[in-house]
Each structure stands twice: as structure tokens, then as C-alpha cells.
Amino acid sequence: MGRDVRLVGVAGVVWGMGFWLVRAEWGVEAYWVAGGCAVGGLVGFVRGWRGLAVALVVGAACAVGVGIRVEAVESGAVREVAERRGTAEVEVVVTAGVRRTAKGVVVVEGRAEWVGVRGGVRVRTPVVVMAMEWEGSAGGWEKARVGERVRGGGRFAVPDGGGLVGALVLARGPAEVVGEAGAWQRWAEGVRAGLRGAVDGMAAAPRGVVPGMVLGDVSGVPQRIHEEFRAAGLVHCLVVSGANFSILTAVVLWAGRWAGLGVRRAVVAAGVAAAGFFAVVGAEPSVLRASVMGAIGLFAVFTGRERQGVPSLAGAVILLILLDPGLAGSYGFTLSVTATAGLLLLAPRWRDALHAWGLSRGLSEAVAVPLAAQAAVGPVLAALSGQVGLAAVPANVLAAPGIGVTTVCGFAAAVLAQFSADAARWTAWPAGWAASWVIAVADAFAALPYLVLPWPGGLAGAALLAACTVAAVAAVRVRRVRRLAVAAGAGALVAVAAVRITAPAWPPDGWRFVACDVGQGDALVLAEAPGRAVVVDAGPDPVLVDGCLRRLGVRKVSLVVITHPHADHLAGLSGVLRGRPGAVLAHSPLSGLGPERRAVAAARASPALLAAVQGRRWTHGELTLDVLAPRPGPPPPSGDGTLVNNASVVLLARWPGLSVLLAGDLEEDAQNALRGLVPRVDVLKVPHHGSPRQEPAFLTEGRPRVAVISVGRDNPYGHPAARTLQLLRPARIYRTDLHGDIAISVSNSHLHVHTRP
Prior knowledge:
eight-stranded mixed β-sheet, Competence_DNA_uptake, cell membrane, transmembrane helix, Competence protein ComEC, ComA-like_MBL
């Protein structure tokens, strides 16, 4: 155990060193850190402090690696263009599968190898390309394949946090492929295409899910299915993870030993299968990380040496961070490590405990594995999302058989497709049936209420959930602690009940306007009649906006206005439409409707679509809604990527005794264009979550008495800006990150503000 702890300590030092240096973007400075660590390591060896010495020496190696990479990124032509926000042609070799976000942004990770400055400069710098579908810049990028060289133009910017990425390239205009992928990458694409062909005759849901579960190809997964998998805690099934690797190699090892190959030959066969898996899914960092973690867990399970798995895991962390220091700040890497640690340290003990309590060995294993993994990754997920899901463990237990069958049969179908399309189709059918079972499990759990609890985000939330997990485990294991936990739980229930009884009623009587607390995004509800409302924007999460509407008792939505097609305003649309039929969907005229149509399809709804332009008016009961912007035609020009924000739909909502201005994500150019059109209002929904890009005259022209800012707690953008808060000071300021849901009501000609933390 001593060696295990020492190696874990070394891994912790390397991880912390990599995270700190990459976040600080230290180049030359990292060499000084390396020198200090090397001297400290030498002193440690002399004094006999072997563990500390090894940690410092390995930390020095990590610092040198970070220094080399950061210096290369910061001193190159790519960063030079990015720092002056210049525009240039660039040739990028695609290194990871193309992703499409809910807001219609095509994201391409790659390595820039040529940039069109000073007559053309050869480089080797990691970049991220973002192409907007609605701006017509996604052509060429959206169809790029791993290994291809793609050339296009764009505006360069320094990415937030910098790190080991040289630039964020905002694509402008179409791109073209100027170099094909290598032979093995073309073969891998053929295997992926073979699987897509094998499932082509299936229903839409399994046709999209099987390639996602087997190869991480989510291009065909309907948005609705993706949301249900996420709500049920099964979204890990749609990305390449250690589970894919473990299932595949476990089956090959079992088959080899059953066929009498012996352990060594079976291991060789499993290695060949793993190599094929690498080739097909792409040898990108996330795949390497997942496969290494899966291999460690598989080794521990098959050898029955869980204790040896811990130093192996620590060694893998050290090796991977030395090879790619950027992993130290990756949430995906953190999730992989913590999940594997949970499987190694917790799952065997919990399996044995469940078996001792009377469960069968197989059922004990089926329950212990997802329970241990969820307990380990829960604090990380809570820090990321600000919520805790309760469905993950039972959903994973029920879905496990389907996941295994889908992975094995799907991969077999992909391989057979290279030789016989008919054999591949027959082999793929069991994968489709199994995937349908997993989809049914996700659908059932996603439909259940109260399975997602709000939770503090960030480090505080992670620490709180970790403490609760430790307390729960102690309560189960120790009788005295169990009694104390029961008493504490009973006290907590009484306290919660007391708070519920004494808390103000929600929704407040006579409410007219509500800003839902949906994190970093907008979701605004305008009362029309009892049980009926108009919704302006849907926030980033269907679960959160649906919960807000349920709390308000909204059963029917007559009109939904999406001010602009960004995920923090659009991605929650299915949560508004599902179960509330009959809505009309109004959108910004700039939008190409791709993001909106995908969101509508996710909700299995079919609302009428219309463009919201200046001069349009809707009347719903006592509510009158006027569109102040955008004007027909292009929005005010902008050279810094704010084109879509400046095309936001701006609305004036009026009820007897109350007026509210809803300004979307407008920035200075578009705010100036509205000068003179803004009447006096009672409430201003502050544009763009209170960002610093505000025109002072626009904020004060309507002389609002109340300013509402819809913003996420601890968001990475620094919203709301101190300057914006200063400009709004004449008004009473309410923020969803501080006050939760914010409601405005009117009684006896008096305006009242209510909050629900």
C-alpha cells in the first residue's frame, strides 16, 4: 500500500503542476519552475525523501513539457494574428471528429499547418475552428473528416483561457478540402460508413444511436434522444469511453479463452481488436484517455488484483499528462480518472457488501459498478452543471445489457460491412433491438419528475456532494453513524417542510412577467391567461425551463419567440414545447432556421414558424407584444463576431399598468440603431446577461424602475460587468444568479418584485 500511495502522490503533483502551468500559460517561466523542482528533487534524494524527490523530478519533466508547448503556441504566427484579431486564410489538419452544437455552430478541432500572413507561413499550432450555419460559413467545415487538410478563411481570436490552443478561428465563407486523409484514416472512415449503411433500414432512433454507442458517431442522433440520454444519466453511452474498450476487449478475451487459445494468445487477439478500435474511432486524445482508463479497469477485473489497479491508474495519469499536459485541465480527463478510481476502489467492496446482504453475485456486480462510478464522478458533474441527477444508477443498471449487446454486435457489423453488406445488416439488427431498449430506458427516466436536483456549482458544490457521499456510505456501514444520519435526515426533512410551509406562495398572485433561473441563458415567461403564457427564449437546458413553467402552472404556450439562435436562448426549446402543443414559433429573420428546426424536432412538435421583424404585433389576452427590432434586411455590421447578437428580436411587452422591454443579446451597434424608438418602461430585461458591451443611453432611455439580469452563477464570462451594473444604478437590480426566479406583478397600480431562490 505504501508504494500505491507514493505513486498516487506523484500523480497528484504532476496533475496539479500541469493544471497550474497550462492555466497560467507559462512558457519560459515554466523552465524556472522545472529548475526549482529539479533542485528540490536532488535535495530530496540526498536527504532520503524518495517519494518527494520522485514527485518533484517528474513534476520538473511536466513543467518542461508545458514550457515547450506554451512557448511554441505563444510565439507563432497563429497567436500573432489572434492577438490583433486579424483575418487570414488557414490550412487545418482535422484531428478530431466534427461537432455541431445546439445553436448551429460547427466546431472543428485541428492543427494549423499554414497561415496566410507574410506571404504564407508554415506552422504546427493547435486551433479550434467555429463555423456558423446561419452565416453560411459552415460549408466545407461541416463535412471535414479526421486527417483531411481543409483550407478556409476566418477571423482569429485568442481563446478564453488560452492554454495550449493557439487561436479560435471564426470561419468566414466556405472552406475546401485541399489534402486527403491518410490511408488508415480512409479505411477507418470506410468502417464507420459501413456501420451507418448496416443500420440504414432501422427506425430513426436506433439508426442514429447505434453508431453513437459503438463508434461515438453522433451525427445521426436526434436532439430529443440526446436530451433524454443526458437527463437519464446515460449520455456517456453516446461518446467513446472506456466502457466501449472494456466491453470489446472483454468479449475478445472471453472468446479467445473459450476457444482454447490460452491467456497469452487471447491477450494478443484483444490487443488486435483494441488497435482496430483505435483506428476506427480516431486516435485523438479523448480516445487515448478513455482506452487507457478502460484497459486499467479491465486488467484489474480480469486479474482480480484491484489493489494493483491503483498504481496502474496513477502511472497512466502521469504518462498521459506528460504526453499531453492539456489533459490536466480537461473535465473529460477528470471524469475518466475519477470513474476508473471509483471502479477500482469502491465497486469491489460494494459488490461484496451487496452480495453479503443477500443479492446474487451478478446483480451485486450490476448495481455496484454504476453506483461506484456515479459516486466518484458525482462531485465533478455537480461542479460542472450545478445539479445532481438521481436517475443515473437505476438507468445504467437497466440499460447495461443493451449497452453490451449494442457495442459488440455493432462493432461486428462495422467490420463485416467491409466484406458483406448483407451479413453486416443481419448482425446489426440485434444491436438495433438492444439500442431500442436503452432508448426506452432513457425515455422512461427522462419523463419522471424530480430526478434532477439543483445543486451549488463550482468547487463548493463538489465538496458538499463529496461530503454527503462520504456521510451516506458511513451511515450504511456504521450502526451509530446510521442512527445519527437517520436523525439528521429527519431533521432536514422537518426543516425543508417548515421552509416550504412558511415560504411565499409561488407563483405570486397577479404575476405578469417571470425571468426563470436557467443558469447562463434567457428564459422569460409572459402571462396571457391562467395556465397560458408566451415564452421568450428557452434557456440552455430543457429540464430547467420546463421546471420553471411547471412551477408557474403554465399548461399551454401560445407563442414562443427565440430572439436569436444561440444555445443559451434556444437549446431548452424542447422543454417548452413538449406537452404544450399549439405554439407558434417566432424567430430572428437572420436565422437560417437550422438550429430551430432541430430543436423543434427534438420536442416532437410542429409549430408554425414565422419571422419576427420590426412592426409586427401580437395580442394575447391582456398582453400586447410589439417587435421593435430587427428591421427587415441585414443587421448592423460587426467585425467581431456579434452579428447574431445584434440581430436579436427586441420586444415591448405591455399589460394594463406594466411595460417590459426585452432586449435579447443586443450590443452597442444595434442598441444605437434603436435610439429614439424605446418608450418609457417599467422593467428592462438587460441585454446580453449584463455584458460590458452596452450603450449607456440605451439602458437609461426608457428610465426603467427595475432592471432584470438573467445570468448564471460563477459564469466564465464575468457577467454581469461592473460597468453595466453602475450604468443601471438608478433602477432596482435583480439577478437570477442571486435571486433565482424573478416575478413581476401589479396590484392597485403598484409594481411588485417577487423572487424564488
